[in-house]
Design brief:
The structure is a single chain. The chain is about 30% helix and about 25% strand. The protein has a nine-stranded mixed beta sheet with strand order 11-10-9-8-14-6-15-18-17. A five-stranded mixed beta sheet has the order 2-1-3-4-5, with helices on both faces. The protein is an alpha/beta fold. The chain is built from eleven helices and 18 strands. Helix 3 packs parallel to helix 4.
Length: about 375
């Protein structure tokens, strides 16, 4: 098996798929490459947007030759069921493909190997598991959605080398440089929603928009149990972006504040006088939110970590040292007396965004 050639094709699929980042939710990111026996690429395609043609269909449309006995590579198993579009597996059979190279099996229970079995039953050679981990990583949001029926939670923070997010007077602009901040905008674009706490809204008055070309503004979620934030803050501006305020029924009944039409007050259960974040996130899932990026101060960040709600932590570290024990740390309030009780993380990636670095980490279960 020409494994290296297949890997090159799947890498091309991943590159194509990534072009639609932020546009396909709740669907996965998928790219497709049609090629001949000499591994010459005939055409390519990718899934542009939820409700539109799948990657395989676009690759077929972009081909200008007979596809009988040709091969196709896709980073995710072709679908075998009718959704908003017809089954891609059926189309590949109809067009006469002789070989399908697949990065990873679809975790969707209504697909989960059925597309592969349908292709094999039709006499098509199927080779799967090529760069499987890379393919799963690209669609980590989709995989969690399908397997656990929960949103994927990314916690982002930017700190100095000594773990501070601001000086003791609150000054924090800017800890990281422009390249790191641009990457943050890309992460916002890749997620359905962005969450922060009322303290951050009051202290920084952020917009929480996406400021990259052709990017989309994520849904804004504000954790404000006592409705301390006023309707004139930037996050509540009616720019046609939906805003949810996670609060309590008691606060809603007492408030006299009037928010714009795009803002929804969402009563949530309480836990130890605070919003029950786990239940609130479940409620957001029922609203159709598949992924949430959290950008907040120490209180909300600490709660998310302490309650094991984050799937991934993205930390930007600037080569700066504040060195003041009264400066604000990105996480605080844990009562830990032994290193064995600490939160253990697994570093997945380390990337440079000069002058800063970015760590992508997952919480280890030990």
């Amino acid at each position: 098996m020409p494994k290296k050639e297949y890997e090159k094709l799947i890498k091309k699929c991943l590159s194509l798929a990534k072009q639609a980042e932020g546009k396909t939710s709740p669907n996965p990111l998928v790219g497709a490459v049609i090629f001949d026996d000499d591994f010459k690429i005939i055409s390519t395609g990718y899934h542009h947007k939820c409700g539109e043609a799948h990657a395989e269909v676009n690759a077929i449309r972009n081909a200008d030759c007979d596809l009988k006995c040709k091969s196709i590579a896709v980073n995710l198993e072709p679908c075998s069921h009718h959704g908003k579009t017809p089954p891609c597996a059926d189309m590949l059979i109809e067009k006469g493909f002789k070989r399908v190279i697949i990065g990873t099996q679809d975790p969707n229970p209504i697909v989960a190997g059925r597309g592969i079995r349908k292709l094999e039953k039709a006499g098509i050679e199927v080779i799967s598991g090529i760069l499987q981990e890379d393919c799963k990583n690209l669609n980590e949001i989709f995989f969690k959605n399908q397997i656990e029926n929960k949103p994927f939670i990314t916690l982002k923070t930017a700190t100095t080398l000594d773990g501070k997010i601001a000086c003791k007077n609150g000054d924090s602009k800017w800890i990281t440089g422009e390249k790191a901040r641009h990457k943050v905008q890309q992460i916002r674009n890749a997620n359905d929603a962005i969450m922060t706490g009322s303290g951050t809204v009051i202290a920084d008055n952020p917009n929480l928009t996406c400021r990259i070309k052709n990017g989309k503004n994520p849904i804004r979620i504000i954790v404000d149990s006592k409705l301390k934030t006023n309707p004139d803050y930037n996050v509540y501006k009616n720019d046609r972006t939906k805003v949810y305020i996670l609060t309590t029924q008691d606060a809603i009944e007492k408030t006299k504040k009037t928010y714009s039409q795009n803002v929804e007050l969402m009563p949530c259960p309480s836990k130890n006088t605070h919003i029950d974040l786990e239940k609130a996130i479940s409620m957001l899932w029922n609203k159709g939110i598949k992924s949430i990026m959290i950008e907040s101060g120490a209180n909300l960040t600490s709660a998310i970590i302490q309650e094991n709600l984050a799937d991934k932590i993205v930390q930007f570290i600037a080569p700066q040292i504040i060195g003041d024990d009264q400066a604000i740390s990105f996480v605080q309030g844990f009562d830990i007396n032994k290193l064995a009780e600490a939160k253990h993380l697994q570093i997945k990636n380390i990337k440079k965004y000069p002058p800063d670095i970015m760590l992508e980490m997952y919480i280890k279960n030990i």
